[in-house]
Each structure stands twice: as structure tokens, then as C-alpha cells.
Amino acid sequence: MVRAEEAARLDRLESQVENGGGGAEEYLCLVRKLKARRSDKVLKHGLSILNDPKARSKLGGEEWTLYEQVAFAAMDCQQHDVAKDCIAILSKEFPGSTRVGRLEGLLLEAKGAWAEAEKAYERLLEDNPLDQLIHKRMVAIAKAQGDLSAAVNLLNKYLEIFMADHDAWRELAEIYMSLQMYKQAAFCYEELILSQPTVPPYHLAYAEVLYTIGGLENLQTAKKYYASTITLTGGKNTRALYGVCLCSIAINQLTKGRNKEEKEGSNLQSLAAEALQRDYKERAPKKLPLVISMLKNMKLNS
Amino acid sequence: FLSRGVEFLSPFLPSKGTKRWQRLQIRPLLFFLSQKGLCFGGAAASMAEDLVLDTAIRDWVLVPLSVVMVLIGVLRYFVSKLMRSHQAPDLKVVKEGQVILRARNLRAASGFIPAKSFRSRKTYFTNEENGLLHVPKGQSQNAQAQMFSDPNLAMDMMKKNLSMIIPQTLTFAWVNFFFSGFVAAKIPFPLTQRFRGMLQNGIDLSTVDVSYVSSRSWYFLNLFGLRGLFSLILGEENAMDDTQRMMQMSGFGFDPSRVIA
């Protein structure tokens, strides 16, 4: 997760470099460290450094990392010849290296030659069966071809070995959601919450999945997770506030017939409604009447 | 009085050919005795007076010893870097590491997921038949046995041990040969008589205060103390992990299956 100060520094450096000030290498270093995806800028400034032999020699050992970075950016911007040149230079310097082999596979992927890319990656995997990045590229190939179930299978096999990789769990959760396999997606979100319990988006997504699956127990759990999202974000998450209201209404609808022994307290619902109205008053006062009428309808119908 | 003292010390008196540093052991004692006017025949009490140590000791013993140990440490670091063999990661080891990470996350954040999911994950890990973390009784191997059965690991350990033992032995022998038989330093706090044997190895006078130590103890002090210095100048993960490795060697009854208990 990019921290706020570093993001601000990145933007500042970017504007500085764009307007002709120095500091291009620092900018590129920061982009590399934060793994930000600013491919066009990286390409432009990286190429200007690499084409200037004086600046290139000033980089020293970092030159090769820069080549790799520029090759990535070029492939992202669909400039395949630039990427091919960079990769050629790199493979001359480091023959037979896995890292360069990965770049070559990426180039094939970028050009759309899926079968050849797969073959190249499999060859690399024979030598390094535990290379995480290559496994992830194979998943990406399957996903790019639209074959989501194959991607799911590959990702599951990857996660059997590397089960502590939370990025992979996130990817799997998103794929399951797009495939509408909600129960499996819920499992993945649980994994994410386990590994990073203080990150609000995971709680929110989990709550949404539970709400979508439906059923009284799931709705109650969903309400709890919406509430925890509100706690974690300090009440600023509008979607969670809506979620709380909707959950309460759905629960009330389901428990209409039974006697309400466990009235969890409509406090939460009314508080959320109030917070919603306050939020809208501050940020979008024109829509406030809509919200008020909607809430009134919901209360009447429940 | 002085003649009496000199009489007593006659076997220790320097002859013409002794080196300067051998005379060092006499000078302080003579000085001390002359100050106090004590008769050796009667004095049995311990003397808590100050010996004045020649600054030449500091110049020619303490500082060179430290410098030599630092240099040897740096040399060992580079040699170990050259000799290090790259070990390809093993699938089983990686998988186990990841499983442990995931199980640890489960234990730490168990309050954040619904009870049902927690229980299902718990069974997944600790199930009798195919639980990932379940180790049937009697099958868990002792870490030591495991380490010796894997030839690569054993070779690695041997190399590391050798690179640690040989310089230590050599330096110790060097110190003993050249720097023995005199008082090298004074420890700033008082000690009991039990430490005498350990700290005053070359000094054969039982009446010198225990705070005055020989250079052997300075060697040991450096051995354990230079670790901090090495982590400064060599960066993290440096070679001077002697004390850690010694602790590892002694603590081999370590059973990993009982770690997460």
C-alpha cells in the first residue's frame, strides 16, 4: 500500500521532471520502489537517460535495472521495438538469466502470442520450479485469454504451495466474484482479512459478498462487517453506511414473522441513517432530499 | 624494607636480556610496595590499593589486540562470502514455511472471521488424517537428526564451524604466547575471588586484586564485544555470528514441532 507521503513525493517529483527540472533518476527509483504504474512517464524519461551515454554511465550498476524498468514500461505502452532493443541489450549482458527470460516471455505475451509465451515460461519453470513471478504470469496469460476457469485452477495450484501470498488471494477473490462463485470468494476474503485485519476494503468486500449470498445468518454477519468497516474508516465510508441500513432492512424483512427476541438494537440503523444524512448534507446537499425520502420508505416498508 | 621486598622478589627480577614488557610486571609491584611499606612476611590481607599500569601496555597490548581481531573478523567475512554455496530452495521447505505463516495469521487474527470459518480452517490444519500441521506422535524428527541426514546442510555447517574455530584457536594461541604473564588492564568494578582463575591466568601472584586481569580476558572481551562493531561496518548478516552459532550448537535439543505449542 502506497503511503500518503510517498505518493505525494512521487507526484511532486513527477511534476518536477515533467517541467524540465532534474531528478529523473530519483523519480524512476521511487517508481520502482513503490511499484507504481506510470508507464508513459517512465518510458519517456527512462529512454532519455538511456540514450544519453553520459547519463547512462553515471548510473553504474543501476543501468541494468533501468533497462528492465524501461522494457516493462515499453511493453505497457505497446512499443514493442523499444522493449525488444532493451531486452536484447540485457540478454547480451546477462546470457541465460531467468530474469531476462521472464522479460522475453512478457514480450511474447504483450504481442499476443499466448502459446509461445506459455512455452517460454514452462521452459523457465523447469529450471526454477519455485519462481513465484513466472507462476503468476501463467495465470495472467489464462486470464487475458478469457479462460477464467483455467486461471482459477492455476491460481489454486499456486496457492497450495504459496499459501501466504495475499496478493494471489486477492486476485482469486476477484476472479471468483466475476464468475459469481460467491462462497469461494467469501473464503478468499476471509483469508485476506486474516492476513491483514486492519485494511477496510477487505471487510467491505467481504460484507458485500455475504449480503449478496443472502440468508439470515449471512446478513447478520454482513451487518457486523459493515459496522467494522465503519469503525476502521472512522465513519467516512458511505458505502458501509448504506450497507448497514440495507442489511437491517433485509434482516427485518426476513424476521417479520418471528418474535424479535434478539433485537440487535435499531440503534445501529438509526445512527447509520443519521450519519448518511449528515454526509450528504456536507458533500452533496442537492441529493439530500432523495436520501431522506429513501430512508423513510425503507423504514415504512420494514 | 626495600631490600626485604627485593629479596623476596629476586626470582622475578629482570635480567639483562628480558624484554621490556616482561619488566612491566615488576615495576608496578615494586612501586606499590615502596609506597605502602608493607612487610611481605607478615602481610596476608588483600591489598586494595591502586597499581599504576604503564601506558605502554595500552599502546602495545590492548590496542593491537583489538585491531588484529577486527581485521581477522573482516577477513573471515570476505572468505565466508566467497565460500558460500548457493542452496536451491526446496519445494517442501517453502511450502512448510508458507503453511506456518498462514497458520500464524489464523491464530493472530482469529477474532476477525466468523466462528464457522475459523473452525473449518482449524480442522484443515489439525485434522488427524490429512491436516497440514498435524504430526503423528513419534514421527516428528529431531532437528539435529534431520540436519545430519541432509548432506548439503551438514557440509555447510562444517564449513561454517571450521571458519569459526580455526581463527579463534590461532588467535588464542597467539595471545597466550605473546601476551601472557603480566597485568593488562583493570576492570572498573570489584570482583570476588572466584574469578581469579579465569581472569588472571598468567599472573602467578595470588595477592594481586582480582580486578587486574591478564590479556587473555581482554581477548575474550573482544571476542564477544566486537559483534556490535561488525554489524556496523559489515552491515547486517555478517560473519561474526560466533556467539549465536555457539548458542545454536549448545541448544540442539530444539524440537520445532513444539514451537507452536
From TrEMBL, chain A:
<dbReference type="InterPro" id="IPR039856">
    <property type="entry name" value="EMC2-like"/>
</dbReference>
<dbReference type="GO" id="GO:0072546">
    <property type="term" value="C:EMC complex"/>
</dbReference>
<dbReference type="Pfam" id="PF22890">
    <property type="entry name" value="TPR_EMC2"/>
</dbReference>
<comment type="similarity">
    <text>Belongs to the EMC2 family.</text>
</comment>
<keyword id="KW-0256">Endoplasmic reticulum</keyword>
<keyword id="KW-0677">Repeat</keyword>
<keyword id="KW-0472">Membrane</keyword>
<feature type="domain" description="EMC2 TPR-like">
    <location>
        <begin position="99"/>
        <end position="209"/>
    </location>
</feature>
<dbReference type="InterPro" id="IPR011990">
    <property type="entry name" value="TPR-like_helical_dom_sf"/>
</dbReference>
<comment type="function">
    <text>Part of the endoplasmic reticulum membrane protein complex (EMC) that enables the energy-independent insertion into endoplasmic reticulum membranes of newly synthesized membrane proteins.</text>
</comment>
<dbReference type="InterPro" id="IPR055217">
    <property type="entry name" value="TPR_EMC2"/>
</dbReference>
<keyword id="KW-0802">TPR repeat</keyword>
<comment type="subunit">
    <text>Component of the ER membrane protein complex (EMC).</text>
</comment>
<protein>
    <recommendedName>
        <fullName>ER membrane protein complex subunit 2</fullName>
    </recommendedName>
</protein>
Automatic annotation (TrEMBL), chain B:
<protein>
    <recommendedName>
        <fullName>ER membrane protein complex subunit 3</fullName>
    </recommendedName>
</protein>
<keyword id="KW-1133">Transmembrane helix</keyword>
<keyword id="KW-0812">Transmembrane</keyword>
<comment type="similarity">
    <text>Belongs to the EMC3 family.</text>
</comment>
<feature type="transmembrane region" description="Helical">
    <location>
        <begin position="60"/>
        <end position="79"/>
    </location>
</feature>
<dbReference type="InterPro" id="IPR008568">
    <property type="entry name" value="EMC3"/>
</dbReference>
<feature type="transmembrane region" description="Helical">
    <location>
        <begin position="165"/>
        <end position="189"/>
    </location>
</feature>
<dbReference type="GO" id="GO:0016020">
    <property type="term" value="C:membrane"/>
</dbReference>
<keyword id="KW-0472">Membrane</keyword>
<dbReference type="Pfam" id="PF01956">
    <property type="entry name" value="EMC3_TMCO1"/>
</dbReference>
<dbReference type="InterPro" id="IPR002809">
    <property type="entry name" value="EMC3/TMCO1"/>
</dbReference>
